[in-house]
Amino acid sequence: MSDLVFRRPVESDHLAIVGVIPEWWGLPAGSPRASLLPALLPRLFLQHFTETSTVVTDASGLAAFLIGFRSPAQPEVAYIHFVDVRPDLRSAGLARALYERFFDEARAAGCLEVHAITGPANRGSQAFHAAMGFTATGDTEIDGVLAWRDYDGPGEHRVAFTRAL
After folding, report:
1. pTM of the predicted model, to two decimals?
2. For residue range 58-78, what is the model confidence (pLDDT) as tens digits?
3. How far is CA 51 from CA 11, 21, 85, 102, 131, in A?
């Protein structure tokens, strides 16, 4: 991890980031789910939340990213919206480094806790968040996991995480 460069994203990073998400998630090009993924990370995040987000690059290009922000409605809360690490760099501590960096910056900004969400089927994300000290919440069991039913609309259930800083 010695050749990694951590920096703030710029708007022109948007296409590169949304372009790798289907591949990094292991989705076939042109699949219905792959075509929906860019909607999860619209350009506005790279226009308005650059001071609370991080892009990581190396000699091969984009290595990882974390898009997060401090809540305008709840200034004591920071929110991690989207994070991913290139598959060949997973298990190297890069996601942990991104989260720790975000925690430090959120704490310095006066935040007392960090929130994040994932889907009930994403057991890897759930395990990672638990290992990072997050607590999962929900209102019902979905696919054997405590989750919030219809959190993001009908049929869009989510596991919500909270971590005190």
Report:
1. 0.93
2. 999 999 999 999 999 999 999
3. 12, 22, 20, 10, 26
